[in-house]
Amino acid sequence: MGRFASLILAFAVALCLSGCAARKEKPSAASTDDRPESADSSKPEETKVPAATTPAASPSPVKDLLSTITLENYPVVDGSTATIPLAIALIQKLTGCTPAQAEESVAFNTTDASYYAMHDGKSDLLLVYEPAQPTIDELDVFHTMDCREIGLDALVFIVNEANSVNSLTSEQVRGIYSGKITNWYEVGGADTPIVPFQRPELSGSQTLMLNLMMKGTAMMAPSTETIATTMADTITDISAYNNSANAIGYSVYYYARNMYTQPGLKFIAVDGVLPSNETINSREYGFVNAFYGVILLEPDPLSEAILDWLLTKDGQQLLKDNGYVPVMKLD
């Protein structure tokens, strides 16, 4: 082969190699972004939220759990005397049981004893007032239990309707219960000795009295006849004491107004405000205190669901319908 032919052949080989390289670098149609992504493709997929996950399309976990509640698996509920009607209404609402079945299912230990019962594993949910300080300290209540405000109540003072005194200042109430004021004429009433009834230590109303009214002022030692063992005793004793108007006592508003009323008694206004559902809800009345739903920090799921529900609008309406003052503002 001559020299010219060799040059022609070399040029042809170079052109062929150049064309192959060009074709190798150009992506084929199958490698473009128009092709379907493979399962291991690194391209991120678009995130889509299914409609079923929205609150409107999916029932809440609380409602799911509540729908499984029956009279047989209902949690053990305990608490204060004044919340017994709430407990009865609640079990009827959630299980559909009869009033008689509900009443048979409710057995309360009273305020402080119910905290001990929960601590000892004997109950799952408390509907309860604030415990006394020794109970808080011994059980370390606010570190071992989940306490949530569910309603409002108030410390109220009760006298006989024949008593001409309709209002006292908080200073006057403290004076009566510390022993500094001993006659009704000192507060604008008749010239007759004041007989102040007290509640026992570790009762819910005694705790409210010490925390809300006395505030560190020592109460005088009561005589045996002026200790009212139960809240019912307080009201009965004020009503019946010597058939006169010289007795005074204290209770919680809900109990005295709705659970155990006696003819011939009246509430005393304190600092010019008479206790009522409205003045308690607005906190215009000055001696308001919450009551609580309490569960353990690692609760039974049904108990937690019930407590969550009590803090919904429907749960708060249940309180209101049964005469309690809810913590939520309802229309």
In short:
The chain folds into 2 domains: 61-152 and 289-326, Periplasmic binding protein-like II (D-Maltodextrin-Binding Protein, domain 2, 3-Layer(aba) Sandwich); 154-288, Periplasmic binding protein-like II (D-Maltodextrin-Binding Protein, domain 2).
How would you explain this protein's 3D organization?
- This protein has 331 residues and is of the alpha/beta class.
- The protein folds into two domains: 130 residues, Periplasmic binding protein-like II (D-Maltodextrin-Binding Protein, domain 2, 3-Layer(aba) Sandwich); 135 residues, D-Maltodextrin-Binding Protein, domain 2 (3-Layer(aba) Sandwich).
- It contains 14 helices and ten strands.
- The strands form two sheets. Strands 1, 2, 3, 5, 6, 7, 9 and 10 form an eight-stranded mixed beta sheet that branches. Strands 4-8 form a two-stranded parallel sheet.
- The radius of gyration is 36 Å and the shape is elongated.
- The N and C termini lie far apart (108 Å).
- The N terminus is likely disordered.
